[in-house]
Automatic annotation (TrEMBL):
Its cofactor is FAD. It comes from the Bacteria. It comes from Micromonospora pisi. Signal peptide: none annotated. Keywords: FAD, Flavoprotein, Oxidoreductase. This is FAD/FMN-containing dehydrogenase.
C-alpha cells in the first residue's frame, strides 16, 4: 500500500478504504452503465472532519479526487475517468431534528431523499424536490447537480430549497453556513455557488433545506392528447385553472409501450394517442373536483383517467416514473436532458427522431419529461458507435432554439465538450476563473462540467 493509501486508512479505518477491485466495482460504473473507470481506491469518510482530512491528504499528494453520493447521476460526473481517489459521501447520514419554527432541517450530505422525506413528514412538512431515484439519490448529490424532478413547477429546483450548507474546499478548508437565515445580504452567496457545481468546487458535507407543507390530498390524471401542441394547451389550462397544480409531465407512445411491457401494465386507454400528459394536484383538501372540472372544459383532452386514492395514483405515476428503468433494461441509452422555450417544444419534438436516424440508422428515440419546464429527456437506444454524433446533432437542434443542453441532470463528463452551445466564451472564461480560484491544482472532479482547455469551443 502506498503512503497515500496508508494515510487515508489512518483517517477512515481499514473497513472504509476499498482498494480491492471487487470492492471498488460498484462505485466505478454509473447508473446507465455508459460511464466507467477505475478508481485508485474508494474512501468512505464518516463526517466533515474526515472528509477534510481525506481532501488534505489527496491535495498534498497531488492526487485527483472524484466525489460520489448515491451514484444515480446520469451524466457520468460521479464516476472515475481513471486513477482518482473516489470519495464516497454515503456515510454522512446525520438527520438533525426538524426545525418546525423555521420550517427547515439540516442533514448530512449522504442522507437519501427518501430518508429525508420520512424524517420530515411526521412534522407535517415535506421536501420540495421529488424524483424517481429517491431511494438512492443523496441530498448532497442533489444539491451538487441542482436536481429538478417532478415538483419544479410548484417549488423550483434544489437550489430553491437550499438555505445553507457546509463544504470542504479542495485544500481541505471547511466553510460552514447553516443558520438558514431568510435574509442575508453579506456578500457573494457561496451556498448558491455550490448548487449545480457538480463536485468541481467543493465537497458538500451538510445541507440546510427549507421544507414545504405536506399536502395529503392529491389527485392524478393521465390525459391522452393529440400531440405536443395539445399538451401545451392543456398545460396552459391547468396552470390557469388549477390553484393546486403540483406536476405536469409528458410522455409519448414509444415510451409508453416500453414502460407497459417492462412493468406489465395494462393500456391506459382503449386507443393509442400521440402524447400523454400526467397532471397532479395537491392540497389540504381534496383537489379532485377542481381537476375534473378543468379536464371537462379543456378541448385538448381526448381521453383521461383520474385517481385520488394512493394505489390509483401510484398506478398512473408508474406510466411516467418507470421510463428510466424500462429504457435502461432495454439497453445502454444515450441520455440527453434538454430544455427549450415552451413555444419551441413542438417543433423540436417533430424533428428529433429523424435527426437521430440521420446519424444513427436504426436507433430508437424515446422522449418524455417535465412538460411544465419544457424539459425533455431524449433517450436514444441502439445508437451503437454513433452515440457521440447523436449527442452532437440533438444538442445543436436545442441550441438553435435557444435551449439549454442540460436542463436538470448537469453537464458531467457527458456534455462538457458541448458546453459552448449553451454558454458564451465569456461565460466559460468566468466559470474557469471561479474553478481556478477555488481549485487551482484542479484536483476535484477533473474533466467534469468544464471542457478541458484543448476541447474548448471544439463543439461550438
Ligand atoms: P451522484 O450520482 O453520486 O453524483 C452526481 C454529481 O454530484 C457528480 O458530479 C458528483 O461528483 C457530485 N456530488 C455528489 N455528491 C456530492 C457532494 N456531497 N458534494 C459535492 N459533489 C457531489 N435528476 C433530476 O434532476 N430529476 C429527475 O427527475 C431525476 N430522476 C431520476 C430518476 C432515476 C431513476 C435516476 C436513476 C436518476 C434520476 N435523476 C434525476 C438523476 C439523479 O438522481 C440526480 O442527478 C441526483 O441529484 C444525483 O444524486 P446522487 O446522490 O446519486 O449523486
Ligand atoms: C426523470 O425525469 O425521470 C429523470 O430525469 C430520469 C431520466 O431522465 O431518465
Ligand atoms: Zn427528469
Amino acid at each position: 500500500m502506498s503512503d497515500l493509501e496508508e494515510e487515508l486508512r489512518a483517517i477512515v479505518g481499514t473497513a472504509h478504504l476499498l482498494v480491492d477491485p471487487d470492492l471498488r466495482d460498484a462505485y466505478e460504473t454509473d447508473w446507465t452503465r455508459r460511464f466507467t473507470g477505475s478508481a485508485r481506491c474508494v474512501v468512505r469518510p464518516a463526517d466533515t472532519a474526515e472528509v477534510a482530512a481525506v481532501v488534505r491528504a489527496c491535495a498534498t499528494a497531488g492526487v485527483p479526487m472524484v466525489v460520489q453520493g448515491g451514484n444515480t447521476g446520469l451524466v457520468g460526473g460521479g464516476v472515475p475517468a481513471g486513477g482518482e481517489v473516489l470519495v464516497s459521501l454515503t456515510r454522512l447520514t446525520a438527520l438533525e431534528p426538524v426545525d418546525e419554527i423555521e420550517g427547515q432541517v439540516t442533514v448530512g450530505a449522504g442522507v437519501t431523499l427518501e430518508k429525508l422525506q420520512a424524517h420530515a413528514r411526521p412534522a407535517g412538512l415535506d421536501v420540495g424536490v421529488d424524483l424517481a431515484a429517491r431511494s438512492s439519490a443523496t441530498i448532497g448529490g442533489m444539491v451538487a447537480t441542482n436536481a429538478g424532478g417532478i415538483r419544479v413547477l410548484r417549488y423550483g429546483s434544489m437550489r430553491d430549497q437550499l438555505t445553507g450548507l457546509e463544504a470542504v474546499l479542495p485544500d481541505g478548508t471547511v466553510i460552514t453556513r447553516l443558520a438558514g437565515l431568510a435574509k442575508d445580504n453579506t456578500g457573494y452567496d457561496l451556498t448558491q455557488l455550490l448548487a449545480g457545481s457538480e463536485g468541481t468546487l467543493a465537497i458538500i458535507t451538510r445541507v440546510r433545506l427549507r421544507l414545504v407543507p405536506l399536502l395529503p390530498a392529491r389527485a392524478v390524471a393521465l390525459v391522452a392528447v393529440d400531440g405536443t401542441d395539445a399538451a401545451l394547451t392543456l398545460l396552459a389550462a391547468a396552470r390557469g385553472r388549477l390553484s393546486t397544480l403540483a406536476a405536469a409531465e409528458i410522455c409519448y407512445p414509444e415510451g409508453m409501450e416500453l414502460v407497459r411491457s417492462y412493468g406489465r401494465l395494462p393500456a391506459p386507454f382503449d386507443a393509442e394517442y400521440p402524447a400523454y400528459v400526467l397532471l397532479e394536484c395537491a392540497g389540504h383538501t381534496d383537489p379532485t373536483d377542481e381537476l375534473l372540472d378543468m379536464l371537462g372544459e379543456c378541448a385538448a383532452v381526448e381521453d383521461a383517467t383520474v385517481a385520488s386514492d394512493v394505489a390509483g395514483r401510484a398506478r398512473l405515476w408508474a406510466y411516467r416514473e418507470t421510463h428510466t428503468e424500462a429504457i435502461n433494461t432495454a439497453g445502454v441509452p444515450t441520455k440527453l436532458d434538454i430544455c427549450v422555450p415552451l413555444r419551441e417544444l413542438s417543433g423540436l419534438v417533430a424533428v428529433l427522431s429523424e435527426t437521430v436516424e440521420a446519424v444513427a440508422p436504426g436507433a430508437r428515440t424515446i422522449l418524455f419529461g417535465h412538460l411544465g419546464e419544457g424539459n425533455l429527456h431524449v433517450n436514444v437506444l441502439d445508437a451503437g458507435e454513433h452515440a457521440e454524433q447523436v449527442t452532437d446533432v440533438v444538442l445543436r437542434q436545442v441550441a438553435q432554439r435557444r435551449g439549454s443542453i442540460s436542463s436538470e441532470h448537469g453537464v458531467g463528463r457527458a456534455k462538457a465538450e458541448w458546453l459552448s452551445l449553451s454558454r458564451s466564451a465569456e461565460e466559460i472564461d468566468v466559470l474557469r476563473r471561479i474553478k481556478s480560484a477555488l481549485d487551482p491544482a484542479g484536483v476535484l472532479n477533473p474533466g467534469v462540467l468544464l471542457p478541458t482547455p484543448a476541447d474548448d469551443n471544439v463543439r461550438g
